[in-house]
Structure formats: C-alpha cells, structure tokens
Amino acid sequence: MRASLAVLGEGSAQKLPDPTWRSYSIFPNVEKFRGRRRVQGRISVSKYQNVMMGVRAIFAALLIVCSAHAQNKGAAVPYGANPSAGHSLRVDDATIYYETYGSGGTPLVLLHGGLYGYIEEFGGLIGELSKHRRVIAIATRGHGKSDIGTKPFSYVLFANDAFTVIRHETSEQVDVLGFSDGAVTSYTLASAHPELIRRLVAIGGPRKLADWTPSAQTEFRNAKPSDVERDSPQFVSERKKLMPQPERWLEFNEKLNAMWAGPVYVTDEQIQSIKIPTLIVAGDHDPYNQIPKFVELFQLLPKGELAIIPGCGHVVLDCKGKFTITAVEAFLDQPDK
Hints:
disordered N terminus; 15% strand; nine-stranded mixed sheet
C-alpha cells in the first residue's frame, strides 16, 4: 500500500531563510538568485557571470571556515580523512575509499553528492545513526580519496562501485541513503540489485537533466569545467590535498559534466522496478530541481513515501539537520511487514 504524501514541518508555518547557497552545491549562485526578478530590463550574461564568481568565492570561503570550525570544535571527527575509520578497496580500474562507523542493526550505506559533496557532508547523520547501527560511507570515484579511474563517469559505474564495496563489507541486506548525485546512484543500485537493499532514502536526486530548474539548466550549459577552480580556488586546493591524483582535477570535472549532460540518468521503468520501501526527500526551495518532478518520481514508486522539508533548499541536512535525521531514522526503523 502506498504511503500518503507528507509535507513535513516543525510546528511553525514560518519560512526560514534558505542557507543552501553557502553549502555543498553544484551551482551556488542559483540559490542566491532564486525567485529574484527585475521589473525593468534583464541582468546581462556578463554581469550574471561576474556575480556568479563573487558568490562562488564567498561560498568556498564559508565552506572552508565552517570545515575548520567543525574540526576545531572539541574532538571533531575528520570525516572523509579519518585514519581510524578509513578503508580502500580496488574496484576494477579504481581504488575506492570508504569509512565505517558504529555496529549493530541493519548496515546503512551513505552515497554523497557530486563535485562539492563528500563523506564529510554526512557528519551529523553518521554521528547520530552510528549509535545504533553500522554505517558505511563511500567516497564516489574522483571525490576526495577515491581514484578517478579510466572509465567515463556514469551512475551505473558509481552503482557498481558501491555494490562491490557493500558486498566486500557485508553479505547482509543494507539500507541506503543517497544525496543528490548519490540519490541518483541509489536509484540505479536499487533497480539493478533488488536483493541488496531493505529500505532506501533518496534526497534531492533527479531522474534526468530536464528535472532541473530552468535556471540550473541554463547555468550548467554556460559553465565550463575550469570554472570551479577559478571561482573557488581555496576549496579546490583543500580537495586536491585529499586526491590521489590532484593533477587530474580538470579531467575529473570534465567527466562529471559529461555525465550530468545526460540527458537521462535513470528511466521511469527503473524507478518502477524499485519494490522496496523508498523515502524521497526534498527541500521546498530546492533551486536545482523542480518539486513537481519529485512528486512524479514518488508516484512511480510501488512503495514510495515523500517528505518535502519546508524552508530548505537542496541541502536539507544542512538546513534542518536534526529534523531531517529524525524523519530518516523514523523511516528506517519501521518494522518490516
């Protein structure tokens, strides 16, 4: 029986300022300008690009400051570069890095977002859920300490990497949570390996390029792989320190851009084939994805649930972390029928 669609709130109808533009995101400036219109004239492409550079610079600086603050706060865990939790596994043409935390319960596999995303974005989630279950956080190839490899990027490739890591770590069924690119990978993984996953949570993952908002599509088409290092040099510098082959940074961006061009990431038939309980999560102010498309995705799922987080953009775990984690945990902890 299909669960009802739910819009989750925290007892207040008041909208909170959306902080996503300063968090992990593919195009930070889209969030900054979402919903803004001029009565007279239009912002020129050159002016728009200049503003984009400024916002990206601010974004990168805030990201590094927040990361430094987190690392200096008590004995903060260095997620994504933690020697006590880190493992490496050779998967075909690449060595994939992952970290494990906690014990007991159904293992939970985490698949992070693309480009700016990495294991560290799940810090709060890992800290909470690893109290009661084992957590396996996988670094997507090319991100952080995982190799880029030689093959063209695709969600099928990412799903195969994840499957190999999971089966290396456990022969049990697992729960999977994917964010953004990781959510798309999770759809692919669930449809290809129905025996593998018990419950699935997918946050902010589109089915195809056409599911992006028009502004995000425009910016993607105008962007170049070299823009990230130009606009966010400090972020790129920090990320390169983790990479096994930092000299391949531009190639890594080119591979991602080719994958994002799609045009289709996962088919409707693949979504319909996912028979396990699946929770789709999105922020109601996501600047990259059209909310009606998440409703369509939810309606394709035989056992789907939909949670729209109010007052949030793309990165709901940053916007309303405790609330989102509580919703995720409640879904994962439901007894099997």
